[in-house]
Amino acid sequence: MIKDAKAANDGGWPIGKVAEMTGLGIHALRFFEREGLLLREIPRSGGGQRIYEQADVDWLILCCRLRESGMPIATIQRFAELVRSGPGNEPDRLALLQEHERNVLAKIADLTANLEVIQNKVAVYAQHVREGTAAGVWAPTSSQ
């Protein structure tokens, strides 16, 4: 989803370019702004167009990673609030990130267990396909 966000920045990017760079849609970027997920109010050009800086893009990429890894929007909002508040709340930020890390590790463990079951089932089916037999492979049966 994340594109090349390190392209040359000549004083800022409009929302369309940031959408391209992050893989987020324009509506999603506006949502992030509306929901207080950004670290600052995005300034506008004389024509009213939003102008994003590299730090905004970097933050958006982090937010995308957090969201894609399952962090709820409300937690991202809390994290953004903490960062906007400035120095002094680093232990709170750390605790929030550590909790998310634990959640992601638990999901990875669950996915790993699921993958093992699927890989075993693939191996069984592959063997039966190679041998041309359906013996031992589940098949629906009639209750009549």
Rg, Å, rounded = 23 Å
Question: Mean pLDDT, rounded to whole units?
Answer: 90
Termini, distance in Å? Answer: 51 Å
Task: Please count the helical segments.
Answer: 5
The amount of helix comes to 55-70%
Please provide the count of β strands.
0
Q: Strand content of the residues, in percent? A: under 5%
Poorly predicted runs of 5 or more residues: none
Biggest sheet architecture: none
Explain the overall architecture.
With 144 residues, the protein is mostly helical. The chain is 60% helix and 0% strand. Helix 4 runs antiparallel to helix 5. The longest helix is centred in the C-terminal third of the chain and has 42 residues. The termini are far apart. The mean pLDDT is 90.
TL;DR of this structure?
By secondary structure, this protein is mainly alpha-helical.
List keywords for this structure.
144 residues; 5 helices; mainly alpha
